Amino acid sequence: MFVVSSQMLLSLFFFFYYVSCLVGIAHCSNGTRRAPLHRHQLSIDFYSKTCPQLDQLVSSVTSRRFRESPVSAPATIRLFFHDCFVEGCDGSILIAGSDGSKVGVERDVGDNKSLAQESFELVNEVKSLVETKCPGVVSCADVLAIAARDFVHLAGGPYYQVKKGRRDSKVSLASKVKLNLPKSNSTIDELLHLFTSKGLNVTDLVALSGAHTIGFSHCDQFLTRLYNYNGTKKPDPFIDPRLLKALQMYCPRFGGNSDIMAPFDVQTPFVFDHMYYGNLEANMGLLATDQGLLLDARTRPLVQAFGKDKGLFFQAFSLGMEKMGAIRVKRGRKGEIRKVCSKHNNNLVS
């Protein structure tokens, strides 16, 4: 498992900050039909009697983790997204595969394989702490939702109330993943269709994409943009030439280090702000799906509005996270409260 060192992150940050200075977008000084949805009532005070200190327990871990390893923030937010979009926010992404099993689990498939181990470890640590105070009460799905919110806020983003009451899924199937996650080269039509199928709209798409204001992506997610855009054997014409040159240095066409990553936001990759949208307007989007938001007439006005008004973006992002967090929530006998987030209760060894 690849581990991002602080030195590597700093070198990437200064390199891409230098590129953004050259481009001039940073201030630099010399010094379709909707699928049926299953929504259930969630509430902010769901654990007010059974685990009233829950938010404080989660915060005690997330705040320390953020200080020690800032990459935990984008990793956990991404983990929450990948959980919710596949069969709902039910902790199914957290289940680890077992040796000898003929049925694969979600985290063993495609893009899920690149989910950072730090995010899984974070959820497990929080769950273990919660179990010491409120045993058998709080779901792993709720732990993940709260932790994602904490990291948004710790990185400089909005603080929003998390509605709770999810139960953990009793299944995790690899076969459910492929059609439920966007690809790095998805078209806006494909993204809108996918988001609509989850009960989300165009505003949610653009706002939730703003999570790319922090975090990094591996070269293989945007390599075709650099060398063979849409089969043309040429770079994407909508990428800034100076950014293109920088990315090609880090990500050669052949023989590059598969562990190398580039920041989504070349200006403030560790700060949750609205610079992501300014990057798009300067043709500095990293993924084809990022830059596509500016190029499509349905999403361009929202990119421009969020780029001008951070408060407007924060408001839309908070609402989008609340809506996403309610996708296909499991309640009652359809779910369980796992004792260990990586295992279904019936798989625990007594």
From TrEMBL:
Reported cofactor(s): heme b; Ca(2+)
Binding positions (substrate): 182
Domain Plant heme peroxidase family profile residue range list: 41-345
Site, as annotated: Transition state stabilizer: 78
Active site, UniProt feature: 82 (proton acceptor)
Cofactor binding description: Binds 1 heme b (iron(II)-protoporphyrin IX) group per subunit.
Principal cellular location given in the protein's record: secreted
Binding residues for heme b: 212
Pfam families: peroxidase
EC number: 1.11.1.7
Compartments, record wording: Secreted
Binding-site positions, Ca(2+) 2: 213, 265, 268, 273
Residues noted as binding Ca(2+) 1 in the record, renumbered to the chain: 83, 86, 88, 90, 92, 106
UniProt keyword annotations, A-Z: Calcium, Disulfide bond, Heme, Hydrogen peroxide, Iron, Metal-binding, Oxidoreductase, Peroxidase, Pyrrolidone carboxylic acid, Secreted
Disulfide bond entries: 51-134, 84-89, 140-341, 219-251
Database matches in InterPro entries: Haem_peroxidase, Haem_peroxidase_sf, Peroxidase_pln, Peroxidases_AS, Peroxidases_heam-ligand_BS, Secretory_peroxidase
Gene3D superfamilies found in the cross-reference section: 1.10.520.10, Peroxidase, domain 2
Reaction equations catalysed: 2 a phenolic donor + H2O2 = 2 a phenolic radical donor + 2 H2O
Annotated GO biological process: hydrogen peroxide catabolic process; response to oxidative stress
A Gene Ontology cellular-component term: extracellular region
Molecular functions per Gene Ontology: heme binding; lactoperoxidase activity; metal ion binding
Highest taxon of source: Eukaryota
CDD domains: secretory_peroxidase
Family: Belongs to the peroxidase family. Classical plant (class III) peroxidase subfamily.
Its biological purpose: Removal of H(2)O(2), oxidation of toxic reductants, biosynthesis and degradation of lignin, suberization, auxin catabolism, response to environmental stresses such as wounding, pathogen attack and oxidative stress. These functions might be dependent on each isozyme/isoform in each plant tissue.
Name of this protein: Peroxidase
